[in-house]
Amino acid sequence: LRRNPYVKNVSAKAITYTDAFKERFIQEYSQGTLPHEIFQEAGFPIDVLGSTRIRKASNRWRTAFQEQGSAGLTDGRKHASGRPLTRELSLEEKYARLEAKMKWLEAENEFLKKLDQLERQMRKKKSN
Question: How many domains does the chain have?
Fold first, then answer.
């Protein structure tokens, strides 16, 4: 596994995949390729990884991408030192953060609309 170019790190309990592989996964998945096929084409031994690990990684990355866009696929642990950022963010970083925030707010807005609609339906049923 360590020799695979899409693996950042391997420990006894976890495999850390590169951001490039996560983006490739999302792109191929959106084109209809099955998760285990994507892993296999990338040179991962399916019998070693197991279907559960592939399914969980797939769900985690798809959820992160839906909520935060490409920014959700990056490994956030490398920025988790606890210290505030001292340098100015690049335009690309600002754009990625704003895009992720926009997607989050859009999803929140849709949720609130559905909640409001359900509340109106409940009130309507009670009044009838």
Answer: 2
pLDDT digits (tens, 9 = 90+) for 3-34: 999 999 888 888 999 999 999 999 999 999 99
| Rg, the chain, Cα only | 19
CB within 8 Å of 22: residues ≥ 6 apart: 61, 73
Identity of the residue numbered 102:
M
Please answer whether residues 7 and 16 qualify as being in contact, where contact means their C-beta atoms are separated by less than 8 angstroms: yes
Say yes or no: 65 and 97 in one domain.
no
- 96: its two tokens: 């990625």
Domain of residue 44 covers 1-77
- Residue pointed to by tokens 């100015």: 88
The burial class, CB within 10 Å (0-12 / 13-18 / 19+), for 88 is exposed
Answer for the pair 17, 8: CB distance below 8 angstroms, yes or no: yes
Q: Say if pTM beats, i.e. exceeds, 0.85.
A: no
What is the per-residue burial (b if ≥16 Cβ within 10 Å, else e) of 7-29?
bbeeeeeebebbeebbebbbebb
